[in-house]
Amino acid sequence: MSPHFIRRKIPITIITRIFPFPSLPCYTVSMLNPTMYLNSIVLVQYCMSSISNMETALLGLLSERPMYPYEIEKNVWEHDMRYWTEISLSSIYKVLEKLEKKLLVDVNLTVTDTNKVKKIYSITEKGKKELKERIVEIMSELEVSIHQIDLALANLSILTTEEVNEVLGKYLKSIDERITCYKELEKYLLEHECAVGNLALSKRRQFLMKAEREWVISFLDEFNTESGEESNE
Amino acid sequence: MSPHFIRRKIPITIITRIFPFPSLPCYTVSMLNPTMYLNSIVLVQYCMSSISNMETALLGLLSERPMYPYEIEKNVWEHDMRYWTEISLSSIYKVLEKLEKKLLVDVNLTVTDTNKVKKIYSITEKGKKELKERIVEIMSELEVSIHQIDLALANLSILTTEEVNEVLGKYLKSIDERITCYKELEKYLLEHECAVGNLALSKRRQFLMKAEREWVISFLDEFNTESGEESNE
Hints:
Two copies of one chain form a homodimer.
Chain A: H1 12-18, H2 27-32, H3 40-48, H4 53-62, H5 69-78, H6 81-84, H7 92-101, E1 105-111, E2 117-123, H8 125-140, H9 149-154, H10 161-191, H11 196-232
Antiparallel strand pairs in A: 1-2
Helix pairs in contact in A: 4-7, 10-11
């Protein structure tokens, strides 16, 4: 047994079906610049569609109604969007500019109640089309990304049996804490009569975290059985 | 009901307990440079420890035995490491240099069988200590990251009931395909008598994907019930 994965190579056919990156044309983009490699998953997703997740997030907001830039900012802030999608308050203007160049949003000048001239952004027909296409694209296929725990598991042999049990005990505790938080979020969203799609932000994570919990328990069981057998040999 | 999340802000206390970024000192790093925001999760994780996941991956390899650079490359390739951790073949030398500067690896010159002088890398005591610390750190706390499906779910109102059912049907199909792949990987790893830690790469994902499957089914059930009620009103 090798402490790292396996000595022999996994047939590339298995691994590329699990992580189908190399078949995508944009994969080469990340290979050209090693510093971009960390972003490869984001890049791949970006390249698959003509709009990025940041652009999608803003188009989604503007699909509700035309907005002044400060309203967009306020919405990003109030919906806590930077916590559940790749957007930052500081990138909003840059993204709006991109959307304008791509003809996905229109910019008009309006006169406010206080007689000031202000820019107002609205989504175009082309923007609505691209937004819908991107939403459909995201929801049509499971996202597979890198989970750093795989790196720790591949190096598990450097820890003793006791240490593995101790750290995974902490891992279980952190899962339970997060489940409690997501339950609290669900309660909050229910109280505010959130749509079923938005409620899913808390519900889906609870399903995943419970599964992570079950995995840890089954893993520890298997691990301790194997360790017990080895120490008896 | 709002098409986006909820109109009122989620109390910051709930959201920061779920995504505890702002409390970390390095959070400010990502705020200073908007282009770095996409990397914020990676950054946060990077800042928490003194070594990055790429450095951890290479230290893990060298913890087995000292290696020539071409052996390291061969291992990264043969263990398909670029698919399950953030490493690319092109970044190996840069990372080795960093590890050398941090005194985590030693570089020695050796004479090979064919009388050539070659560099050989070995892990130092300090390197072993940091590797272990990082592995313990990763395994002590659940990783919470951004899932792009949340972005689609927040914009669900732009799709019709039929469209939601159709795309989530495809999503279910893609989950099933991945589960099949991971089962195949598990079989392969078992046949090659892989350690229990390495087997977990395929087993853990199966737990998560089955949970994702259950979530989709429960979500569709809830969504269709709500849509049915609305159309009857």
